[in-house]
Amino acid sequence: MPRPTGRVLTLLELLQSGGTRTVAELADRLGVEGRTVRRYVHQLIDLDVPVESVRGRYGGYRLAPGYRLPPLMFSDDEALAVLLGLVAGRRAGLTTTEYTASETASAKIRRVLPKHIARRLDTLLEALAFTDQPGAFDTPDTGVLLTIADAVRHRRPVSLRYTDRDGQRSERTLHAYGIVAHSGRWYVTGKDARIGEDRTFRLDRIADARTLPGSFEAPVGPGPTQRVLSAMATAEYRHEVTLRIHGTVEQIRARLPASVASLEEHQPVAGEDRATERWLRVELRAERLDWLPPVLASLDRPFVIERPDELRDLVTALADRLASYARQASTVTSSRA
After folding, report:
1. Which residues sit opposite 244 in a β-bridge?
2. In the Cβ-directed half-sphere of 320, how many Cα atoms lie within 13 Å?
3. What is the DSSP string of 94-137?
4. Pairing mode, strands 158-163 and 206-211
5. Mode of pairing for the β-strands spanning 206-211 and 197-202
6. What torsion, rounded to 10 degrees, do the Cα atoms 121, 126, 131, 134 define?
7. CB 276: neighbour CB atoms within 10 A?
8. Secondary structure of 249-308 in HEC code, one letter for each residue
9. Cα three-residue angle 198-201-139, rounded to 5 degrees
10. Strands 169-182, 185-192: parallel, antiparallel or unpaired by DSSP?
């Protein structure tokens, strides 16, 4: 049976989660009677924890608004979730601060944990491995990220100082729809007020952001995630590629996701299974073409290259190399025999 001190700390954790808790609810969660709950509340008050009593039909107890409790208390599951979140975020390039900030945050959490929990978590982190190396991504400024997030929530225009991939700097006024994390980077998507068109910006390329007076209506249609993926698939690059591939949507998307290519899906005729293989039109843009032939080969589906001719030459060259390697392997095996 938990000791009274343990129940008092549990009561504090329940109140920290926010809102007003009725005496009946607290008594049920703590496994005690109502008068015992009241005694525990008085013990917290004696410790200078500002617990307020709320009268009325839905009354009970709550913490004073704006009060920040000094102790940082985690259960085993909570501590594991926080530390793994820091590790995973750093590995995925989704931290918004420098590497050292993530390290110092982890160290602070470890310092306030009981020793037996800290040892178990350290053991887990030492045994944990990843299949890839951490990405060397640029991270957005925390102030920029929070400013844009506030603009998204309150539907307020935001002024940006942006540097594009060519190093060109510009001032933009954006009606931001949402923030999206994708492949280790942060993006904001919205309408560029000057040109009246949707645009997507990398947050690490935004030097400054400030909210402006006014408001705007949220758009209907695709959400921020789909808008970012579509923007990536249709971005201006050196090569425009058009293919026809015979297969299912799932087979094609396994190698050419929505962030890479747009797929023209034909509505199946009456009685036709959506998973039926058929010719689908695929369009994408790329700065380089050398990565595409291996992707098309891995699809193992019939395809037709409509443009550009350069891609057709690269695919032919890859096929010739593979055939040459296959013949060479056969020759080596025969000579050893």
Report:
1. 281, 304
2. 6
3. --SS-HHHHHHHHHHHHHHS-HHHHHHHHHHHHH---SSPPP--
4. antiparallel
5. unpaired
6. 90
7. 10
8. HHHHHCCCCCCCEEEECCCCCCCCCCCCCEEEEEEEEECCCCCHHHHHHHHCCCEEEEEC
9. 160
10. antiparallel
Which two structure tokens, joined as six digits, stand for 13? 């954790």
For 197, the token pair is: 């068109």
Tokens of 327: 């013949």
Question: What does each of the 337 residues of the chain score in pLDDT, given as a tens digit?
Answer: 456 777 888 888 788 777 788 888 888 888 888 889 999 999 888 888 888 888 877 678 888 876 665 555 666 677 777 777 777 666 655 555 555 566 667 776 777 677 777 777 777 666 666 655 555 556 777 788 888 888 888 899 999 999 987 788 999 999 998 888 776 678 888 898 888 888 888 888 998 899 999 999 888 878 888 888 777 766 667 788 999 999 998 899 889 988 788 888 765 555 556 567 789 999 988 888 999 999 999 999 999 999 999 999 999 999 999 988 888 855 555 555 5
Closest among 203, 200, 201, 252 to 230, alpha carbons compared: 200
pTM confidence score: 0.50
Amino acid making up residue 306: E
322 is written with which tokens? 């593979």
